[in-house]
Amino acid sequence: MIKRLKMKHPQLSPVVKNLLYCFLFVGLAGCSFVNSVVMRTAAFKPGNFVVWTADLRSDYQKNSYHFILRSPMNSVSGICFLKKKDNEWRGTLINEMGAKIFDFIVTDTKCELFDVISVMNKPYITKTVASDLHFLFNVDNPNAPFQKRLNRYEQHEMKVVNYRQKQISVKSDSILLINRSHKLFYGLNKILEIEPDKTNM
After folding, report:
1. What is the DSSP string of 153-192?
2. pLDDT single digits (tens) 68-85
């Protein structure tokens, strides 16, 4: 059982409070991502772009990314491996110490987490993270249930997608997902070349 971390931040949701507690065990890390919501300006242009270009994600080879998952107080980082198998995206998150955080499988309709590290294995944590990852990796999927409710635009060489309280922003080889409801930030930076790993996917 995970004990809740007592904090003097009543505005934080239970998910954030427990993630903050988890990060103390998983590991802390710095972050180069801009962790603020992109506000639409007069320079915006409506777009019909794809987020996951061929440069950012291959359908045929294993993809590797530096990742960071940040809460208002702490963060965890490492490497994310992602590969497409049939109509699913399968991934693994490994922290900087080489320990697996969790595996995940993303389909058209949902994302499921597996082998979640014990300190994060709470239903309201896994449900939130799974929902965020489903949106992130399916944002270009025409069969995703949220597809018709997305708002896409471009400004200042940045691509932005809004959906309810979530926002994806893309610039160069970096992708940032912000969950405004729980104040969570997910950052991915594509690793162009990496030595073969022993991750089973």
Report:
1. EEETTEEEEEETTEEEEEETTEEEEEETTTTEEEEEEE-S
2. 998 777 688 999 999 999
Ordered DSSP codes for 117-143: -GGG--HHHHHHHHHHHHHHHHTT-TT
Is 50 exceeded by the pLDDT of residue 14? yes
CATH (residue range 43-190): 2.50.20
Domain boundaries along the sequence of the chain: 43-190
Query: For 94-123, b where at least 16 C-beta lie within 10 A, e where not — what string?
Result: bbeeeeebbbbbbbeeebebeebbebbebe
| d(C-alpha 127, C-alpha 111), whole Å | 9
The 10s digit of each residue's pLDDT in 83-101 is 999 999 999 999 988 999 9
3-state secondary structure of 34: coil
According to DSSP, residue 97 is labeled T
Q: CA 140, CA 123: separation in Å to the nearest integer?
A: 27
List pLDDT tens digits, range 141-192. 999 999 989 999 999 889 999 999 999 999 888 999 999 999 899 999 999 7
